[in-house]
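Researcher: Structure for this, please.
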Amino acid sequence: MLYWHWITIGVSLMAVEMLIPSFFFLWLGAAAILVGAIMFFVPDLWWSYQWTLFAVIGIGSFFLSRAVMKNKPMTSASLLNKRGKMLIGNVVTVETAIVNGKGKAKVGDSVWSVTGPDLPVGASAKVIGANGTELKVEKV
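Model: Predicted structure, token format:
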């Protein structure tokens, strides 16, 4: 294959990544473009070496990216769609008394289900955890 074949394949794989977000086609596309760049400088590379390079670079870059992303610290941007986790550490007001470990608390302009120690209406509680749409609280 010629260098421009690999670059075309790479761009196509990246387009597939935009249509079907999976975080896998991105790295295969980058590997194909890299093989295309190598082919530009070494045009006589055998086809078996081309495909081996593509496989090694694609799979290696995928696993390398997974390792890097796994060790990335949590930031407010990474919690963007995890509202419950963003509330950890906030103090909320008990809206419906917490009885037998279940109740409701006012958070800003919304009301959330909460679990924690029994507390009366109007008491303050600190959010210490979140499980979906349910907050875990403790007495302040």
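Researcher: Any notable elements?
Model: The radius of gyration is 26 Å. DSSP finds four helices and five strands in the chain.
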